[in-house]
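Hi Q.,

Before the meeting this afternoon, I wanted you to have the phosphoric acid mono(formamide)ester prediction in hand. No need to reply - just skim if you have a minute. The sequence and ligand are here:
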Amino acid sequence: MNDLTAFTGNHVLSVAQFDRPQIERVFSVADNMLPYALREKRTQVLDGAILGNLFFEPSTRTRVSFGTAFNLLGGEVRETTGMSNSALAKGESLYDTARVLSGYSDIIAMRHPQAGSVAEFATGSRVPVINGGDGANEHPTQALLDLYTIEKERKSNGEGIDGLHIAMIGDLKYGRTVHSLSKLLCLYKNIHFTLISPAELAMPSEICDMISDAGHQLNITDQFEGSLQADICYQTRIQEERFPSQEEANKYRGKFRLNQQIYTKHFQSKTVIMHPLPRDSRVEANELDNDLNLNPNLAIFRQTDNGVLVRMALFALTLGVDNKVSDFDRPVHWFSNKGQNI
Ligand code: CP
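Predicted structure with the ligand bound:
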């Protein structure tokens, strides 16, 4: 994609397809979606459209927020969840599955455990496909909602994304959200990356090279050290489902816990705490302690709310209705206190 009209009818497979003006366009459309997400009004702009929501790997927020976003635009959602519930389990190819399901839908969101699978599926699809996560490779819509959250959090302090210092912590090898977010941040100026992980779970070298080649500052360490002057602390989960064995994953579980005491020791009082979720709250992991729940800098649930806005924006842009949403407004008839919650 190389201009603002290029969203319409196109797949969203990787953050690499976006430039800064396009990202700004996504964020501007997302801002316009807030009254609908708050249920102040509704729109029927996608009345009659069908989303095929295909999740061949577990998901709570990506799957449900894709569906919610489509419903909020007036469209309908058809779900397929789990590999064993689809003909993929009988040996059908991704290409054939795409040819078939794209005949039933106007747009498809898809998650699959293999890197590159969503792009392969898209080659057979007759409608736009949005990548909801393909193995350890990418999670472009999560990266967009993370960046949108960073922009909003920074704006409240009168700052922008340029000049940001972000600390990424945990499983940076298999964590697709940090891969996509790092690539997006490379489009901005003077970003300082501090990457904290066991050496075995380090950020892939090609992404480190991309960061360095773009002229950003890169620090790599395997422990929390001293006072990190980071603006954002981005914690991640050990992606146990991508390890060769459970025993291997267990070696790293609980290695980088964050609680209020550790936060106070290593971060600034204004450092925003992010996590793509789910956080692993089992006692042996507890990577983001509940004692941070009342910390006003904990942005994890602002991220999940922002995910609906960003996914609404991507649907509207991809289906070419981004400038028509309010033409199909309807009033809300029921009591809603969502405005008090977001
Ligand atoms: N962040 C994220 O992808 O969450 P889910 O696995 O619940 O979709």
